[in-house]
Amino acid sequence: MLLDPPKGECCQKCKGCTYRGKEYDSGAEWRDPDDPCEVLTCKAGVVTVTKQQCYVPCRDSMPPAPGKCCRTCMEIVYIGRADVKFGNECTFIGRESALAFV
Question: Does the model's pTM come out above 0.85?
Answer without folding.
Answer: no
